[in-house]
Automatic annotation (TrEMBL):
UniProt-listed SUPFAM superfamilies: Homeodomain-like, Tetracyclin repressor-like, C-terminal domain
GO molecular function, one term: DNA-binding transcription factor activity
Domain HTH tetR-type positions: 12-72
DNA-binding region listed in the record: 35-54
The name this protein goes by in its record: DNA-binding transcriptional regulator, AcrR family
Transmembrane spans: none
Keywords: DNA-binding
Coiled-coil stretches noted in the UniProt entry, renumbered to this chain: none
Species per Swiss-Prot/TrEMBL record: Jiangella alkaliphila
Pfam family, one: TetR_N
InterPro entries in the cross-refs: Homeodomain-like_sf, HTH-type_TetR-like_transc_reg, HTH_TetR, Tet_transcr_reg_TetR-rel_C_sf
Length: 194
């Protein structure tokens, strides 16, 4: 099940049905591969209802990105790695344990923020939002680097985030051990920043 998809079954609210539908479609196929008319049809709402809740496709994409951050970044990766680690270093490494489970799922869809950013201009409002959500992930890594007492938390967070994104792309390419390889490299990265 794609993260976010569960809400459609639990609420009759038209806005939520549209958002859940778009979340699933955009996560799987990207924003360019999905037309507003398809979202409207699959969400079973009238076109006027759609536009009452979302002025444009860009507004819908922004809402999907916000939900993705809540459900995936904060609700899944950050919370689950926090739960698994007893200290900051363990919580950093646990990110790749969480990734390993995510990568193994039948509905692994990759990173929506990266996918959107690659499909739109970074200067576009949707591209800017994607950049900001990716920065929010780096901020979480930066906080953990500070907690772990690592030197140069900004540089560490950028390097760690590159490793995260690389693991996601490797998994999307079909590399079954992407998370394990990234976990091994992550240990070295932590050692280099002690």
């Amino acid at each position: 099940m794609v993260l976010g998809q569960h809400a459609a079954a639990s609420t009759p609210n038209a806005r939520e049905r549209v958002l859940d539908t778009a979340y699933t479609l955009f996560s799987r196929r990207g924003v360019r591969g999905v037309a507003v008319d398809e979202v409207i049809a699959r969400a079973r709402v009238a076109k006027a209802t759609f536009y009452r809740h979302f002025r444009s496709k860009s507004d819908l994409v922004l809402a999907v990105l916000e939900r993705r951050e809540q459900e995936w970044t904060t609700g899944y990766v950050e919370a689950e790695s926090e739960r698994r680690g007893s200290n900051a270093e363990e919580r950093l490494l646990a990110i790749f344990d969480v990734f390993g489970e995510w990568f193994a799922r039948d509905d692994f869809e990759g990173c929506t923020f990266i996918r959107v950013l690659l499909q739109v201009d970074a200067e576009n409002v949707v591209g800017q939002a994607s950049v900001q959500y990716l920065e929010n992930i780096r901020a979480m890594i930066r906080r953990r680097a500070v907690e772990a007492g690592l030197r140069d938390p900004d540089d560490f967070a950028r390097s760690w985030h590159i490793l995260m994104k690389g693991a996601i792309l490797a998994a999307a390419e079909g590399e079954p051990e992407a998370a394990r390889h990234a976990h091994d490299m992550a240990r070295t990265l932590i050692d280099n920043f002690r």
